[in-house]
Write a structure and sequence with these properties.
single chain, 250 residues, six-stranded parallel sheet, three-stranded mixed sheet, 10 helices, 9 strands, binds NADP nicotinamide-adenine-dinucleotide phosphate
């Protein structure tokens, strides 16, 4: 397939590389020049990358970034032909996703929200899970691509529902990580050995996949970002907005 991949951050860089490895013809674009993927062509604008593409895949930071990349100056939407599909793996607002889809539908372009779970390692090892919102027949066309970048795609419902379910997931992840960090701090201060605490967690019913993901990094004191806190803060803001709560203080 001819695929444009827009956004080569922690997640997008590996996802695009896996599409190349699977033999697809990939053209990339990244806001800050210099990020490239071996075996892929690189373009100067989203519009140039998207020209002639059957599928445009996005993985950028937030809602504004998606809007800019699709509809801004030199945005991808301007150069796509009817029948093209845009798949968005950024975690953004569910209602904005629906708005973007309606706008694209006027040009005959289909939109699928496909945020992911699995973090940096999942992207690198192609074990992501896609959390998908969109029309059944469009989602079906993307199935081979989901399986190149991940191990599963779960179709939650119509457009925006992938993002809604992703926010519900990240709410839980935020609480588990905060609990893990606070629990670990308390244990250390009380003199409990870290490995003893880890063994206890894994043997008990509070064990969790996200904590098991994090333990090896904590052991090595490797705090390089996998899922940067600024992105979780963005997601908590999205949860508050989606539930009509007040904004976080800046
Ligand atoms: P990242 O490493 O910070 O990369 C963000 C990407 O978005 C970069 O390519 C960045 O370009 C681009 N970008 C930011 N603002 C932009 C704008 N206004 N216009 C155009 N491009 C813009 O983030 P990531 O970890 O890959 O995450 C990407 C998305 O996946 C986020 O929505 C995140 O919440 C979600 N996600 C992340 C993880 C994870 O574990 N990391 C897991 C699941 C979902 P520059 O290079 O120019 O900055």
């Amino acid at each position: 397939m001819r695929i444009a991949f827009l956004g080569l951050g922690i997640m997008g860089g590996s996802m695009a590389a896996n599409l190349v490895k699977a033999g697809h013809s990939v053209t990339t674009w990244n806001r800050t020049p210099g990020k490239t993927v071996p075996g892929a062509q690189s373009s100067a604008t989203p519009a140039a990358a998207a020209k002639g593409a059957e599928v445009v895949w996005l993985c950028v930071s937030d809602t504004d970034a998606v809007e800019h990349v699709l509809f801004g100056q030199d945005g991808a939407a301007g150069s796509l032909a009817p029948g093209a599909i845009i798949a968005d793996s950024s975690t953004i607002s569910p209602s904005a996703s629906r708005r973007f889809a309606q706008e694209l539908q006027k040009k005959g372009i289909d939109f699928v929200d496909a945020p992911v779970t699995g973090s940096k390692i999942g992207a690198a090892e192609a074990t992501l899970i896609f959390i998908v919102g969109g029309r059944e027949e469009v989602v079906a066309k993307l199935q081979p691509l989901f399986m190149v970048m991940g191990k599963q795609a779960i179709h939650i419902g119509d457009i925006g529902m992938g993002e809604a379910a992703k926010l519900a997931m990240n709410l839980q992840i935020a609480l588990i990580y905060q609990g893990f960090a606070e629990g670990l701090t308390l244990a250390r201060k009380l003199g409990v050995k870290e490995e003893a605490l880890f063994s206890l967690i894994q043997a008990s019913m509070i064990r969790s996949g996200v904590v098991e993901y994090k333990m090896p990094f904590v052991r090595k004191r490797d705090y390089s970002p996998n899922f940067p806190v600024r992105l979780m803060r963005k997601d908590i803001q999205l949860m508050l907005e989606a539930s009509n709560f007040r904004r976080l203080k800046p």
